């Protein structure tokens, strides 16, 4: 993760306070800032805050405002506040469990599955999630300069089996609209690319990142566009966010959501059913429910396989089929995500 100050601003003139880039710059950047903002007395918490985590705190004020400061187990707070739990060790947990580094065919490009390639568009995120499986990923190797972009285009030209390009990160929506547009224009030249997919959690942190310009550039590009939001809990679906998602949907973008199953945050069928229903109200279909990866520092969020299956089966008994996300795990070397229940 790179400091927020490294995020490029398009305009030299000062940005308005309600501009997303300004709001990103104004985010809360330490655990103390977050606790002070919420007026939470650290000593009163039933767990120990860790002020020295190398993966630093970052929370937008929009998201902080969705936290119930009276509840030390608030599901948004627990995703963002670093605690001593991150120092636990667990056998089998490692820094790069997905062995992603080995599929890094070029700096910034991960080609693991046959027809789709993942582009690390931007290293920074609007928020830092404590469960993040990319927290140890070597982002410094994945900055995209002009030469690297040209090399990526070359690689894509030479791989006609790739028909979908996936924007990932970090978070691709950390990039300005102008730079996103340039990137999309460059990719448009690769004729066999049909589909553009953007994976992002930024709208959760900054709903107004969904700017008119962003919607326009998706509408204008030649790709079949999909936006996959990363929303884990119904509390993250603020009114401002659902409004923006509805606009996106009406402009013709396919909207999907993926969640991570997280202990003490959303590891019960009731919360996840409510999430599915709320997503659908906003025009979004649930896509994946990921079981957590075995990443060091995230052990306290881990949900065991049997518990995950039980939750999923309870969801299945309550939801319309199309509101049931696929329960998956990422297993290195596999040709796709692995469905945990293949034949329920
Ligand atoms: C998850 C992932 C994809 C996308 O997989 P889908 O099953 O199509 O959502 C692509 N590339 C990489 C490296 C991934 O981890
Ligand atoms: S937004 Fe995604 S990539 Fe960024 S810290 Fe959160 S989980 Fe990790």
UniProtKB/TrEMBL annotation:
Signal peptide: none annotated. InterPro entries: Aldolase_TIM (IPR013785), EpmB (IPR022462), Lys_aminomutase/Glu_NH3_mut (IPR003739), rSAM (IPR007197), rSAM_sf (IPR058240). Residues 111-334 form the Radical SAM core domain. Its cofactor is pyridoxal 5'-phosphate; [4Fe-4S] cluster. [4Fe-4S] cluster binds at residues 125, 129, 132. Keywords: 4Fe-4S, Iron, Iron-sulfur, Isomerase, Metal-binding, Pyridoxal phosphate, S-adenosyl-L-methionine. GO terms for molecular function: 4 iron, 4 sulfur cluster binding; isomerase activity; metal ion binding. The modification N6-(pyridoxal phosphate)lysine is found at residue 337. It holds the Pfam family Radical_SAM. It catalyses: L-lysine = D-beta-lysine. CDD domains: Radical_SAM (cd01335). Belongs to the radical SAM superfamily. KamA family. PANTHER family: L-LYSINE 2,3-AMINOMUTASE, LYSINE 2,3-AMINOMUTASE-RELATED. This is L-lysine 2,3-aminomutase. It comes from Reinekea thalattae. The gene is epmB.
